[in-house]
């Protein structure tokens, strides 16, 4: 413990006050270099965390999307009237928005799923690699979604 | 209180033998779905705007029907495993969790059955 009032010179000729000041300076100087635990005001949200939660959200979304696939297959089995209803629904604006959401979710879940499989094999854990693969997943999602819809519209005419 | 060390206790009990079962099946279905969903999406794009007869001819083709059944099986099993993890992570009450798990697993089973039966009905000309 340091006693300000009564102490005289320290072992190396320094007073406790000087030691205190030096310690304070050292503490201030070293502060920015120290690893800090995540803090809300200075925390940079890593892109991998966004993709991680998106993987779950798109996964659950695709689960609801299978209802659409189920409906389409049942309609194809049930007869021409049912099938016509299903096609009319998928052709409507609501149907197309749902299909677009389904395509985006599927492409994202597909790309990020491949990224997860690489991790499962123990590859790509370096910070730079993980960040680059995250960006690649986002680019892949956009490219595959756009390609799917362009080709779809081309075929449909 | 036992004086045995944790490792000794674990050895005495033996391993559960299926601790990685869920994880592994999720990966195997994922790899299968890379191929199957790729085929499925490309086929659906090619089928855009198909008529009732064209759609039925496609679904009813033996190879397509087989691949569809595989896709349906892997897809709903993968979905069941994934939903299970999400529910176990976010639903905490024991009874509510069990109920939600039963509901989601049941829904996946019903979905898989409905899709498979529809494919079979079309394939065998129902």
Topology readout:
The complex is a heterodimer of chains A (157) and B (126).
Chain A: H1 16-30, H2 47-78, H3 80-91, H4 93-120, H5 127-156
Helix pairs in contact in A: 2-3, 2-4, 3-4, 4-5
Chain B: H1 6-13, H2 21-46, H3 52-60, H4 62-90, H5 94-123
Helix pairs in contact in B: 2-4, 3-5, 4-5
3D architecture notes:
The complex is a heterodimer of chains A (157) and B (126). By secondary structure, chain A is mainly alpha-helical. Chain A has helices at 16-30, 47-78, 80-91, 93-120, 127-156. Chain A folds into two domains: 1-34; 47-156, Up-down Bundle (3 helical TM bundles of succinate and fumarate reductases). In chain A, 75% of the residues lie in helices and 0% in strands. In chain A, helix 2 packs across helix 4 (93-120), helix 3 packs across helix 4 (93-120) and helix 4 runs antiparallel to helix 5 (127-156). The radius of gyration of chain A is 30 Å and the shape is elongated. The termini of chain A are far apart. Chain B is mainly α and 126 residues long. Chain B has a single domain (21-123), classed as Up-down Bundle (3 helical TM bundles of succinate and fumarate reductases). Helices cover 81% and strands 0% of the residues of chain B. Chain B contains five helices and no strands. In chain B, helix 3 (52-60) packs across helix 5 and helix 4 runs antiparallel to helix 5 (94-123). The model of chain B has no long low-confidence stretch (mean pLDDT 91). Classes of the chains: A mainly alpha (157), B mainly alpha (126). Chain A binds chain B through residues 56, 59-60, 62-63, 66-67, 69-70, 73-74, 76-77, 80, 83-84, 106, 110, 113-114, 116-117, 120, 148, 151-153, 155-157, and chain B through 27, 30-31, 33-34, 37-38, 41, 45-46, 48-49, 52, 55-56, 59, 75-76, 79, 82-83, 86, 111, 114-115, 117-119, 121-122, 126.
